[in-house]
Specification:
Layout lengths: L14 H23 L11 H8 L10 H11 L22 H13 L9 H17 L6 E5 L2 H16 L5 H4 L8 E6 L4 H9 L7 E4 L9 H13 L3 E8 L11 H11 L2 E6 L23 E4 L1 H4 L7 E5 L2 H8 L27 H37 L3 E6 L4 E6 L9 H15 L5 E5 L2 E7 L7 H17 L1
Parallel strand pairs: 2-3, 2-4, 4-5, 5-6
Antiparallel strand pairs: 1-7, 6-7, 8-9, 9-11, 10-11
The structure holds pyridoxal-5'-phosphate (PLP).
Pyridoxal-5'-phosphate (PLP) binds next to helix 6.
């Protein structure tokens, strides 16, 4: 691929070259989309060993290459081996396909190469607009602070960083850090919370020894009585309870913590209320889910992930902080006497990033194309499909349902009468491995109450009811071979 042309090496293209290459790239993706929709692609295609080595061990390119050859290499060696979540038969983790219009949005945003730190540019205004829409959907006042970030993990870090600032007793968190805090802060979350909460408290210097994992009830929701007991124990030990992190959609089972009750505890105990709605928060739009989310609008800070259930290409997360000023105080590196609020304040004063990507464009495009009503229908449909999956599992005698959401995650196992109970974990592990290797469907696993469970999550506008039968048939087929 080395052109051998060492005289003039530049990334510049003529408009004609760019047009040709761009059309080729769009053709590749359009063909890929066609194959996905016609279910001609496996949910997962393992990277062949030789190719894996080739991809990993590439020599440092000393000289340039022809763009057309690079695109051809992409088509042959990269595009066929995605993680798989653009596929209608992909049920793993919490990953969704990308809305095609937002894929185009990524290209357009890169073409503008805006840095949305702030300033008088269209990107700034578009981000303010989509943030205001998200606040409205989630029941937050327009005056709240908000940012688009890389994802739910960063949303949690930003929310808890503002919390740490707001609850510091030293009054000088930014100067003295946590070295000035005595007694130590304590944060509460449930045993089912996402690991990003551990990462956030570790990174923010609170430390995971000061993160209490409150046990869950039979439906995998935080036990609020036990939360109150633990807060009392910590107060009596002279510690400083500061925050509860509730989950609006746990990754393991799709459970939603009792948000209203937790909000009440936070008010009584004067604790910061953070909600991790990375997976489920946006499901507040769906009619059947609305009741489960009561209280989410009372959070001091909230993370949601448009790159999950809003089908925005990765990366796109969002953090909302009720008190905009505390967000600015926690992050702004511009002294108050230099701040100029004649324009809208810069986003870079409200979070850790200075140079920031134009994430708003892909989100704006999808929200305009689909509309709130479209999202309501799509999310409701996914929850309905998860309910159908549970009914299908119950109707098949060799399957056992282990957990049932209520959002769109279902945990189950293959448990025919012939396999003794102590062997079921090992059998299902083997089974999952076999199903993943075949790759026509893809799902993952979890452990619930010590039991190994197959886990299927549906946040996919391409999945249809027939794909659920296909999933269960594929599992059954592999099981019968064992
Ligand atoms: C409940 C929950 N919280 C947080 C995260 C982390 O979000 P991200 O991967 O976007 O950083 C996830 C990711 O799956 C999640 O499901």
């Amino acid at each position: 691929m080395d052109t051998g042309n060492h005289d003039e090496i530049t990334p510049e293209m003529t408009p004609e070259q760019f047009r040709r290459l761009g059309y080729q790239a769009v053709d590749l993706l359009a063909d890929h989309l066609d194959r996905l929709q016609k279910r001609l692609e496996p949910a997962r295609r393992a990277v062949p060993e030789g190719l894996r080595q080739q991809l990993l061990e590439q020599p440092l390119p000393q000289n340039g290459s022809e763009p057309e050859e690079l695109l051809a290499y992409f088509a042959e060696n990269i595009l066929p081996y995605p993680l798989g979540h653009t596929n209608p038969r992909f049920f793993a983790w919490v990953n969704s396909p990308a809305a095609p219009i937002s894929v185009i949005g990524e290209l357009l945003a890169a073409g503008m190469n805006s840095s949305v730190a702030g300033g008088d540019q269209a990107g700034t205004y578009l981000e303010h607009a989509v943030l205001d829409w998200l606040k409205e959907i989630m029941g937050f006042p327009k005056e709240s602070g908000a940012l688009l970030v890389s994802g739910g993990s960063l949303a949690t870090i930003v929310g808890l960083a503002v919390m740490r600032y707001a609850h510091a007793q030293s009054g000088d968190l930014r100067g003295r850090g946590l070295q000035g805090e005595d007694p130590p802060m304590v944060v509460y979350t449930s045993a089912e919370a996402h690991s990003c909460v551990d990462k956030a408290v570790e990174l923010l210097g609170i430390g995971h020894d000061s993160l209490r994992k409150i046990p869950v009830d039979g439906d995998f929701r935080m036990d609020v009585g036990k939360l109150q007991q633990q807060i009392e124990i910590d107060r009596q030990s002279g510690l400083h309870p500061v925050c509860v992190v509730a989950s609006a959609g746990t990754v393991n089972t799709g459970a939603v913590d009792p948000l209203e009750q937790i909000a009440d505890v936070c008010v009584q105990e004067q604790l910061w209320f953070h909600v991790d709605g990375a997976y489920g928060g946006i499901a507040v739009l769906s009619e059947q889910a609305r009741e489960w989310f009561r209280g989410i609008e009372r959070a001091d800070s909230l993370g949601i992930d448009p790159h999950k259930w809003m089908y925005i290409p990765i990366e796109c997360g969002c953090v909302i902080v009720r008190n905009r000023q505390s967000m600015r105080d926690a992050f702004s590196a511009v002294p108050p006497y230099l701040r100029d609020d004649r324009q809208l304040p810069w986003f870079s004063e409200y979070g850790p990033q200075q140079t920031r990507g134009f994430r708003a464009l892909k989100l704006w495009l999808a929200m305009k194309q689909v509309g709130v009503e479209g999202y309501r229908q799509l999310i409701s449909r996914d929850i309905h499909l998860a309910e159908r999956l549970r009914e299908k599992i119950k109707a098949r005698p060799d399957f056992e349902l282990i957990s049932a959401g209520p959002l769109s995650v279902t945990c189950f196992r293959y448990a025919p009468p012939g396999i003794p109970a102590p062997e079921l974990d090992a059998f299902n592990r083997m089974l999952l491995d076999a199903v993943q290797k075949v790759g026509e469907v893809y799902l993952t696993s979890t452990i619930l109450n010590g039991v190994f469970a197959l886990r299927a999550s549906i946040i996919n506008f391409r999945t249809e009811e027939a794909d659920l039968d296909f999933l269960l048939d594929a599992i059954e087929r592999e099981a019968r071979k064992k």
